[in-house]
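note to self: dont lose this again. the chain is below, predicted strucutre after it. 151 aa total, dont forget to put it in the shared folder this time
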Amino acid sequence: YHFHRADVAIAASYRSYGIGQEGHGYRWQLGEQRIGLEVFKFLFDYNGFMPFIGLSLGTAHQRFEARDSEASGEHGTVGESAWSPAFGLVFGWDIRPSASDWFYLRTNLRLFWTGGSGVQAFDLRNRHLEVNFIQMVIYPERIAKLKHIHP
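---
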């Protein structure tokens, strides 16, 4: 949600990603899901280029699984998962041709830290940097208002 007069935004974020490898009867996977709430303030408007900075608070679920297809019984699969808090800094910029357009282009970066126990197989309790290069931000309320202006 964007508070127009204060030029402050509140956003929910969800990200899920994973990596893994498989070969010679052995497979491992490492994944993480994050959900958070972000609050950020736009700093100034430089001809439609609008940088912002804010805070993020959420949680991260990390999981690790390794499977050896040649091993039998309980030795064949090893897994671990953990929940931990995640907090950080979000910053970036919007490209806004005008203040009333129904969409903007946004680039944001998130520098965040996860705490708690984490998955011990891989130490994920450190800081991470995410880059979302170009996102399209759509304001459905503004689309509805356009229909009333231009029938």
